[in-house]
Design brief:
DUF1361; 10 helices; 217 residues; transmembrane helix; mainly alpha
């Protein structure tokens, strides 16, 4: 597991870059609030949720005991998967873009704000997936790691459907599990759920492949 310590040290600079990008996003949202209203302040909360998977995977890389002990590793892995859809979910916030706001804020500014948040969320998600992939590759093998990452991509796509169309969130697994389960079972036969799951799942998997294509594992 010494390779994990090396991997973590090599990702510190990347974490700083993601932090600066998140800070830039927050500044954009706050400036817009000062100019007109707090319409886009919810993006800050969405971005925080998108960074939770990265916090989990980075903690696992930094603490080998969390990986070696099953009673820590598997619950953390499930917790990571539970919050992972929040990273690509930010892409769907373009639904809030209104080109006829009439509030004095240029449309380009709102586009810049949303695309900055979406990019930040996607990059944080990809960085986190890469870290989990590295952990699974070293703990088990690369083939299993690829299978788990592919499964997580399509589960994230389904999570986007649950969040954007059915308005569930990650916390509903604990606070509202029965209603969530019924919604999941019902959506298994719906074409929109299948389309969103496959579309965003393939998109996320292709992004991850591109993101890791120049790295050796």
């Amino acid at each position: 597991m010494k390779a994990l310590k090396i991997t973590f040290s090599n990702t510190i600079r990347q974490h700083y870059a993601l932090f600066y990008l998140a800070l830039f996003c927050i500044i954009l949202a706050v400036v817009r609030t000062k100019l007109t209203s707090g319409h886009y302040l919810f993006l800050i909360w969405n971005l925080f949720l998108a960074y939770i998977p990265l916090m989990i995977s980075a903690s696992m890389l930094n603490n080998i005991q969390l990986i070696e002990k099953k009673n820590y590793f598997y619950p953390l892995l499930c917790f990571w998967l539970l919050f992972l859809p929040n990273a690509p979910y930010l892409i769907t916030d373009f639904i809030h873009l209104n080109t006829k706001t009439g509030n004095g804020v240029p449309v380009w500014y709102d586009i810049l704000t949303i695309i900055s948040f979406a990019t930040s969320g996607i990059l944080a998600g990809l960085a986190s997936m890469k870290q989990i992939f590295t952990i699974l590759s070293l703990k088990y093998n690369p083939l299993l790691a690829w299978f788990c990452i592919a499964a997580s991509c399509f589960l994230s796509g389904f999570g986007i459907y649950l969040g954007r169309f059915l308005r569930f969130n990650s916390w509903d697994v604990i606070s509202n599990p029965f209603e969530l389960l019924l919604a999941v079972l019902k959506s298994l036969t719906e074409s929109t759920a299948l389309g969103v799951t496959m579309g965003f799942g393939c998109f996320l998997l292709l992004l991850f492949h591109f993101y890791t294509s120049n790295n050796d594992y």
